[in-house]
Design brief:
The complex is a heterodimer of chains A (about 130) and B (about 375). Chain A has about 130 residues and is mainly beta. Chain A has two helices and eight strands. The longest helix of chain A has 6 residues. In chain B, α7 crosses α11. Chain B is globular. The chains are: A mainly beta (about 130), B alpha/beta (about 375).
């Protein structure tokens, strides 16, 4: 784990900060320098709400080594109430309750331990409500 | 631009090549291609390799391979576009010949995946590290998400996905270079271990060591080397969002359709003019969606088409993955795009044995990277 790499993502991972295009209103998560829809370079920083729904999902049975103690776990593509999209692990939910169209709440959680010293890395997960 | 031909091919057997290094594997494939073409030298070479650094701790793959091939001081360039590295290397070699700057150019690809590393983590570097992989997704997981969205939107069945693997294993049974030369049944696919729901082990291409290479030259020189050159009539490439979650449609692979539109226009062809295709079936759902994006079937009809035999060698209107595809032949990532070209070359020159598609004149290769963030399509024609 390279600490600067982690620290610079904190606004997104801890506070769900996104960039809303001043020209076309497209919301980019994470923020970008160029709007992928209209090429504008002007954005407002916004915070995404913690409400969304599942657009698609999978249940990971075979993971990379870093997540192997957590399998099986769900991962979903979430659309937030503002229309932004992101990918999140599912927490506190029975596997059979994960489905397309289900409403979720985004919560702050530990995501993984990285490196030889096992540094805790945090971020958002989604709970089916 | 000059017309360009493929004049020679060579590949290793694909599989778990425990006693061969990445150098051994590439050099074996490249020497076969050089000997097959009957060329005394090459002017330049391109090597597709996704991640020598992660798989075997070796970068600078172009220089390494030129050295061990005994070709110093020819220029050697490594090309990387994740799983589309091989097809993209072929495209770069094509341009070097078409531009007139070189005559005999080798396009190859290699990957050595069975050397004891965390392959799931290495492959996942083709996705966004900070916003996809950070949150626990894997490559099978990304395509599983496409599969769930596709089955939800089009009412496709698990059996239809399995039919892709059954067909490709049937084809690979007759390919001496394939990793898995065994027929499988729908039941075996449906009873195999879950990897990422709804995808099971037999929906997934395997972890493979392997190398492949072809020789290109100007069409006007091709007859000096072979009686049966194959002309490259189109090469096109496109890109899409690196993250699956940012796509407008989770059941489309837009880079494939964008590249296909360009490829068909360049060759002045329609999808129905293609006699056979090698399609990037890293997972069963990938072949289904890509076959729709290539225009072979309407959106939502690719899954039933496989079940109805429309993509089989025996009765298909468009035989897909006659080589066995990535599923049965194996998927040494950087070599895959070149191995696709080799299958089309063998088919168009009537050398495909029991896999031979009758009267094959025009063949297409579709090679994609990541969850579809890059795609390269090459179309070849028998002369
Ligand atoms: Zn915009």
């Amino acid at each position: 784990m390279i600490t600067p790499k982690y620290v610079r993502e904190i606004p997104q991972r801890y506070r769900l900060e996104a960039a809303k295009c001043k020209n076309c209103s497209y919301i980019s998560f994470p923020p970008r320098l160029v709007c992928p829809k209209c090429k504008s370079r002007s954005f407002d920083t916004i915070r995404l709400s913690d409400e969304g729904k599942i657009l698609t999902f999978t249940i990971i049975r075979v993971s990379s080594d870093i997540f192997s103690h957590q399998t099986p776990y769900g991962v979903a593509v979430i659309e937030t109430s503002e229309g932004a999209k992101l990918m999140a692990m599912i927490a506190d939910t029975k596997i059979e309750d994960i489905a397309i169209g289900k409403k979720v709440k985004l919560i702050f959680r530990k995501i993984r331990d990285e490196g030889v010293s096992g540094i805790h890395c945090y971020g958002y997960k989604a709970v089916v409500i | 631009m000059k017309d360009v031909a493929v004049i020679g091919i060579g590949m290793t057997k694909f599989g778990e090549l425990w006693n061969k290094s990445i150098k051994d594997i590439f050099v074996e494939a490249a020497l076969k291609a050089i000997d097959n073409a009957g060329v005394g030298h090459i002017d330049s070479m391109y090597v597709g390799a996704m991640s020598g650094g992660l798989f075997v701790g070796q970068e600078h793959i172009g220089a390494v391979m030129a050295d061990y091939l005994g070709m110093n001081p020819v220029p050697a360039t490594r090309v990387e576009s994740a799983c589309a590295s091989g097809g993209t290397a072929f495209r770069q070699a094509y341009f070097e010949v078409a531009s007139g700057s070189s005559e005999i150019v080798l396009a190859g690809g290699v990957e050595k995946m069975n050397d004891g590393v965390d392959v799931t983590a290495a492959l996942a570097t083709a996705a966004d590290q900070e916003y996809e992989v950070y949150n626990g997704i894997t490559f099978p997981g990304l395509y599983a998400m496409i599969a769930n969205a596709y089955m939800h939107q089009y009412n496709a069945t698990r059996e239809q996905l399995a039919a892709v693997a059954v067909k490709n294993h049937h084809n690979g049974f007759n390919n001496p270079n394939a990793q898995f030369r065994s027929e499988i049944t729908i039941e075996q696919v449906l009873n195999s271990t879950l990897v990422a729901d709804p995808l099971r082990l037999l929906d997934c291409s395997p972890v493979t060591d392997g190398g492949a290479a072809v020789i290109l030259c100007p069409l006007e020189l091709a007859k000096q080397f072979t009686d049966s050159p194959v002309k490259v009539i189109s090469t096109a490439q496109a890109s899409d969002t690196i993250s699956l979650y940012e796509r407008e449609s989770l059941t489309s692979l837009k880079a494939v359709s964008d590249a296909a539109v360009k490829a068909y226009k360049q060759a002045n062809l329609k999808p129905e003019d293609i006699d056979l295709a090698e399609v990037h079936d890293c997972f069963t759902i990938a072949e289904i969606v890509a076959s729709e994006e290539l225009g072979f079937f309407d959106k939502g009809c690719g899954a039933s088409a496989v079940e109805e035999g429309k993509t089989s060698i025996e009765e298909g209107t468009i035989p897909i993955n006659t080589s066995g595809g990535l599923k049965s032949k194996g998927h040494p990532v950087g070599a895959t795009g070149i191995a696709q070209v080799i299958e089309i070359y063998e088919q168009l020159t009537g050398q495909a044995g029991k896999r031979q598609v009758k009267d094959a004149r025009i063949g297409l290769t579709q090679n994609m990277g990541g969850s579809g963030a890059s795609c390269v399509i090459n179309i070849l024609e028998a002369l």
